[in-house]
Design brief:
The complex is a heterodimer of chains A (68) and B (257). With 68 residues, chain A is mainly α. In chain A, 76% of the residues lie in helices and 0% in strands. Chain A has 3 helices and no strands. In chain A, helix 2 (16-34) runs antiparallel to helix 3. The longest helix of chain A is centred in the last third of the chain and has 23 residues, at 42-64. With 257 residues, chain B is an all-alpha fold. Chain B is built from 8 helices and no strands. Chain B has helices spanning 2-32, 34-60, 64-90, 99-112, 124-152, 155-176, 185-207, 219-238. In chain B, helix 1 (2-32) packs antiparallel against helix 2 (34-60), helix 1 packs antiparallel against helix 5 and helix 7 (185-207) crosses helix 8. The chains are: A mainly alpha (68), B mainly alpha (257). The interface between A and B is large, with 37 and 43 residues.
Chain lengths: 68, 257
Amino acid sequence: MRFLRFWSDFLIGDDWTIALGVVLAVAVTALLAVAEVAAWWLPPIAVIALLGRSLLSDTRTRGRDPVE
Amino acid sequence: MSATLLVLAVFLACAVEAVEALTVVLATGLVRGWPSALAGVGSALAVLAGIVVIFGPAIGRIPIDALRLVIGTLLLVFGLQWLRKAILRASGHKPLHDETAIYERQVSAARTAGRSGRAFVTDWYAFTLAFKAVLLEGLEVAFIVVTFGANQGHVALACLGAALAIILVAVVGVLLREPLARVPENTMKFAVGILLTSFGTFWAGEGAGADWPGADRALLVLIPGFLLVSLLFVTLLRRRPPRAAPDPEPKPAEVTS
């Protein structure tokens, strides 16, 4: 259990939504590519959106919470 | 171009992790004595070398598209965590990494800990502290070396970047005998976050079947693009009221990015 926890912390970190969002973005990119639709634009946009959402969420949560 | 960026990314990431590990090893060695601390460092380096030697060539045998898809996705998740923390630090929403403060806390903890020996180790506390610090900080480097090296087909070049950083940090640390507090660690972490995210985006997209305009040259747009966006996030977040919070108490070794 501690082993899994370690690797989860190591790879996913403290915001699991980033990992989920990246996997979904890559899956949609693959689907677009299979359908022969230009897909290169999707990963960078997904990265910016996921990063922005995570930062916004983190600073909001931190703003309410008096103790870290 | 890719090879230069590869060495640069691995060098920076490794230098940052080596500085963090050095802080713990120095505090342990200077307070508790060097034999057990150095035995811990040597054991951890042997484990890390084994990981790179086993997984480097093994990963290299996976078909390149599957490799880029899986490794690119993992690297992107990993890089976004680095970048997110770097942006939070740069905007004042997370305490900056302070090697001097961490060093002082480690010294204080090392002075009060009891002393007992096991097997060939005379001071188990010093051994485990140094071992964990080097192993945990080094795992991030091993991950970057293996993934970057395998994807670019240059594991040896990635190892070179890592070795240069470790040697440089170790030599400076031995000469100064104090934590390298003046290394611009937070800036370096920001740069590593940008590089990991850019390479991860490129490889994950390519592995998923996307055709990047300009092939490898797309990285020359992704890297400055992500840098600009990140700086914009820093500017925007600086307008939000930061919350002063002290660095957490040091763990035996911290996997931080």
